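Reopening this one. Same input as before:
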Amino acid sequence: MGKGKVISKAVPPYRECHGATHCIAEISKIPNVKIDYERLAAKRVAVVGPFYINEFLISYPPPKVDEHILPEYQNYWAKAKSEAAFR
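Same output, byte for byte:
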C-alpha cells in the first residue's frame, strides 16, 4: 500500500490510461465531461468515487473495489470482468 501515482497526462475522456489502476471521479462535479468508460473497462481501470480513497486509507483490510464502482460504470466493469475470466 501507499505507492499511488497520479498520471499527469490523464485528461478527459481518459483514453490515455496506460498504467492506471483507478480513476477517481465525482460525476456530479464534472457533468459536461465525457469519460470513455468502455476504454477504461477494457484496460481494467476501476472508476470509483472519492469516498473510496477515504475507505482505502482508513480501513483494514482495504475495501473491495467492486463495492465502490460508480453506478454509471458498473455495466462496463462487469462486462470487462466477465470477459477477463474467459481469457
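So the earlier flakiness isn't reproducible anymore. For the record, The longest strand covers residues 22-24.
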